[in-house]
Amino acid sequence: MSMILSASVIRVRDGLPLSASTDYEQSTGMQECRKYFKMLSRKLAQLPDRCTLKTGHYNINFISSLGVSYMMLCTDNYPNVLAFSFLDELQKEFITTYNMMKTNTAVRPYCFIEFDNFIQRTKQRYNNPRSLSTKINLSDMQTEIKLRPPYQISMCELGSANGVTSAFSVDYKGAGQISSAHQRLEPATLSGIVGFILSLLCGALNLIRGFHAIESLLQCYLLVYYTGWRNVKSFLTFGLICLCNMYLYELRNLWQLFFHVTVGAFVTLQIWLRQAQGKAPDYDV
Q1: Is 49 helix (H, G, I), strand (E, B) or coil?
Q2: In terms of CATH, what superfamily is 4-153?
Q3: What pTM value is reported for the model?
Q4: Cα–Cα distance list, 143 to 81, 127, 138, 146, 199 (Å)
Q5: Residue 233: how many CB atoms within 10 A of its CB?
Q6: Would I find Hydrolase among this entry's keywords (predicted)?
């Protein structure tokens, strides 16, 4: 019998489970799929926004949007169009019910567990397709899946549920750390955004006066993207800003020099404070 078995809502950046359906089935296959749920939740930031993982008699489908992923487990014969239509409904309801500030600042697992009520109602409707009243929308979803089919995750990409690291994992880990090419930074704070704008302003003022602005642009880059030796580069960039302003001492008044150096120091501090995200905690998804 084709049916949806469970569903979860997970934050993409760290794999924090925000809500999940209550599962009553405790079969061996379900227990194994829960392991895959955990493994996928840790890799969501590196995966496309629409994916499918086939695990024997079960399929795991998920979509990601605005930093939140909606994941479901169904039998392998459950129609794809219904599966992704189900996830699309979860996404629309969750975005309507909870704003991004709440999801970004959540610290406890399952802090939106009340969303389970909507998951259960929607799951019951989709397990009885004759009761669905959105057949017109299903045709739209079918067209969308044909134009942009979900990415098929292979088991070798995911790695085994017993903890054996796969080739996919090696691509993202080196000496126990995620490589800089795929590392994500912590969410930007208000002070970080202000620093970014001020750094751009300093760069624009330098260009208007006919000076180079590469040090300001480099600070903006380091504030937004993760690179190797990021903190060292930020301090060297600040040193370059100080040297350039010393060179321009006769062309600027003290207030201008103070403004440029202060902004440089402030942005350097923001780069130091905005560190890379650590490894996703082992939440019990």
Answers
A1: coil
A2: Longin domain (3.30.450.50)
A3: 0.56
A4: 9, 22, 9, 5, 45
A5: 16
A6: no
Work out the angle at residue 46's Cα, subtended by the Cα atoms of residues 43 and 47, and round it to the nearest 5 degrees.
Answer: 85
Task: Give bridge partners of residue 50 from the DSSP assignment.
Answer: 63
Q: Rounded to an integer, what distance in angstroms lies between the CA atom of residue 45 and that of residue 178?
A: 12
The span from the first CA to the last CA of the chain, in angstroms, equals: 25
Most distant CA pair in the chain, distance: 81
DSSP string computed for 220-285: HHHHHS--TTHHHHHHHHHHHHHHHHHHTTTTS-HHHHHHHHHHHHHHHHHHHHSPBP-PPP----
Domain ranges of the chain: 4-153, 192-273
pLDDT band at 165 (very low <50, low <70, confident <90, very high): very low
Residues in contact with 42: Cβ distance below 8 Å, sequence separation at least 6, in sequence order? 15, 279, 280
